Structures are given as structure tokens and as C-alpha cells.
Amino acid sequence: MLKLTNLRMWVLAAAATGMLASCQKNGQVPALKDADQTITNKTIKTLAVSLTQGFEVGSSSPKTAYDVSPTGSSSGDNVTLSGASWNMYDALIGNLAADQKAGSWSARMRNTGKITMLFDVTTGISTVTIKSATYNGDSASTWGLFYSVDGGSSWAQSGSAITTTATLTVSTFTITQTGNVRLEIRKLTGGSNRINIDDITINDNSGGGTGGGGTVLTGKKFLFDASHLENAGSADWQIDADGTEQVAIYTGGTTTETKAQRIPTPSYTGITSSTSETYWKGALSAWAVELVKRGELVESLPVGTAITYGGGGAQDLSNYDVFVVCEPNRLFTAAEKTALMNFVANGGGLFMIADHTAATTAGTDANGYNPSDRDGDGYDSPRVWNDLMTNNGINNNNPFGFNINYVDINESPSTNVYTGSNADAQKVLNGAAGTASKMAFYDGSTATLYPTNNSSVQGLFWRNSATNGGTANAMALLATYGSGRVVWIGDSSDADDGTGDTGDSLFNGWSGDAPSGYTSHSAFHLNASLWLAKAQ
Fold this sequence. Notes:
Oligomer: single chain
Largest sheet: 10 strands, antiparallel
């Protein structure tokens, strides 16, 4: 979203002409630290998982028929899942009541059906786990796991055949192969009786990756909030929007804004490594498309849908790994605050994004502009987030270890980045999406850290004028709470990809503005997303 300030215009003009010089620079639920990975400076040892496939395909299945002729037909049998090609012979992806599934969908095979990877994992395979069950109402069948090290020319069976049971059961196979390997699941007996296959997980045989790349756990589910007027005014914090709605504006009345739906369209099964972010329409589409390219799943929480946890609904937070809320413009209800706190405490990831503000929302801010209360209800995103952390009924004493300052700052950019040995911070700053070393704010807020409230809180960027590692003037941070994780950043513009609602003023803060390499916002947001999901 465009936030016109004289300072920002000067910064971009100066940067474009090479004038900018680089600057140096009691919770009730205890904060927990992850000890499952070891990091030294900028070297990351990642999870030894190279692929997961849970057959979660959104609102509709890309494979609805039992194609059988000819065998291995690419016309009807091939399907793209999490950006990779699979062949499903006499098999489909279903979500009927009789399908045994860990999420919303699972694979279903009959007769002598097969599910085959049309690609190799390149880091070898140590073990594979697969969930299977008998389709409800059918009799038991057997199936086997086969692997190929020559691109599918020949196959060897791993272990013994598995007999299905009435409920999903995990089977583990030890393969111990290095280099390129692919898998095939074959139904061996049982005739027309059907079986369900779900949650295929491949553990690599390379000992984990290092550096800025590394192995990323796929199949994580991200929910982007669109229920708290993230589209108000000139904001467009949505991953995709196909409809319109009338939204209140701070000057009075309403404006026509684009409206997000639960499942982005076209289907994310069509996204490949070369797909443009304009595949979807939203200022956060670049973020969502990149997550899908990495094998993750994305949805939106549409307007009119309450945030819940443990309620059993289709979009209950218990069904997701990460909840992303970019600049909420309405307070969370008491029930929603309870849901958010419990979601994080029980292992969820919360990505909290705020924007600029002032000491009061009545009038102009320090730069002479209206605070980011885009709907005029007296609350902007810093106040919404502070209300969550001080008025949630569970722990009202800044349980994540920070509080947002009511300020409006510009930084052009900050290179005052954390350089210590905190393992979690290094995953966010030097993770699978690359190195995050520069962060610009175009009218944003800062935070004050309170490590006595939560010892895990860790600043990631500070203003150039601030003390590195200090508790004041943080621009981005992370914390753990219970078994969950939190990341906060004080400016929504950094996630803006410059496209979306044609009625809004948007600019590209996602890929770095000008000149090239001016910032590293995409690396920060993607690394933080994967850390929140416990995917790296």
C-alpha cells in the first residue's frame, strides 16, 4: 500500500541515483525453546525431511476418476501436487465420508492401482512413513511400497506388504538409498475393495542441509486472515480476491473493495516453479504463491468468519499450522482472543503484522498523516495487537514479551540486524529462502521488548540508531509461547507485492524496491513463515 511521505519519496529518489550510503549498525504459559536443531552463526542444520504429501488440494480434487487405460496414461493419470508431478493409475483423490483421511482429502486406490512419483528426491531416502486404511464399508486389501534409483526404469519392493485396517495406520519403511530415488505405492490384493493412502513422508539420507538452502518440510497449512478489514481503505492485504464488498473508510461512508474467498482461484495445483504472482489477485499474492512453490498450502479466512480454535469447524485454527494476520483494522472479539492465545500455546504459529500509528487516532500523526485506522473505528493495527496482548483474559501481561509503540517511523533501510547465536533467529534471518539482512520501513511502528515477561523474545531488526540486541526500537522480532511461535513486524508495506486491487495505491515492497538488492523482505517473510510452521 502506498504511504506517501516526503521522507519516503526522498529515500527512493536518492536510492535510485546511488546517493544512499549503507548504515551499520510472567507469562502463565511458559516460553519454550526448540532444541531440535543446531545452528552455529549462519550455518543451519535442517530437518531430515525431503518431502511430505498429504493430498490436501483445496476446494476441488484435480483427480476425480479411476483412469485405467492405457496404463500410465499421462492424459488422465498425471496430477500436480505441491508443485510436483505424480501419476495416479486406477486411483483418485477423494473426500467422501467413507474416505479415511488425516485432513480433508486422501488418495483412494482400487484393483491394482498405483500412485507413482514422476520425479526424484535428490538427497536419497533413509525411511518413509505412509498412512493407510480400508475404505469404509470395504474389505481389507494389501499394498506395497516400491522404489526406483534409475528414474522409474526398474523397481524394488521395500519391506513386506501392508494389510489395511479400518482406521488410518502408520507404516514405516527403511530404504537407505543415496542420490536420486522415487517411490511407487501399489495395491497388491483385494480386487475392487478400495484403500486410502495419506501423509507420505520421506526422510532424506543426506544428514540434512546447510547454509541458506536446506531441506524444508512441505504440506504445511497457512491461513491468511481476511476477516478483520485487511482490505479497508488503500490496503489490500489479501492473497487472492474474486468478489467485491462495501467497506467503511475513516473519512466516512464506504468504498468498494475486493473481497477474499476461502480457496484462492485458479487452483494452486496449477502453480509451478515459473508461475507469476499475478496468478492470484492480491497484494500478498507473491507471498502465497512462493509458499505454494515450496510445497505449502494456503487459504484465506473470509470476512464474516469468526476466528476459532478447537471448535471443529472447517476453518478452525486447529486445522492449520500458521495464521497470518496482516494489519487487522478491527479488534478481535473476546472469543477470538482466547482462540488465538490457545492456538499459539498449543503449537500454532502466529505472524503478526502492524503498521504506523500515533499517540492518538483522533487527528493526524507526527508526519501530518492520518494514522492507519482505515475504517475510522478508533483502532488501528498496533492498537488491535496491543489489545490482544493486554486484554485476552488468559495472560494480560504482554505474554509474547513485547508491546507495540504508537509511533510512525521511516527507515531507509535498516542494516541493524541481529548477529548473535540465537538458533531461532538464525533460521529466520538465514533460512531456506535466503539471507534477510536489510529491512526498510515506509511509515511503520516499533516495539519495546520485555524479556522478563517472556525470556524467549528476540529482536531481529532495530532502527539504525538503536542498540543492536537492545529492548528498544525493534522493527521485527520473534518469540515462543507454550509450544507455539510468534513473529512480529511493524510495517505492512514490506509484504506488499505491488499488485492487487486496481482501486488501491500499491507499491512493491516485497521484492526489494529500487535499486535491486535494496532490501530483503521476501527472504524475511518466507523464512519466518517456515520457522512458524516448524518446516525448517
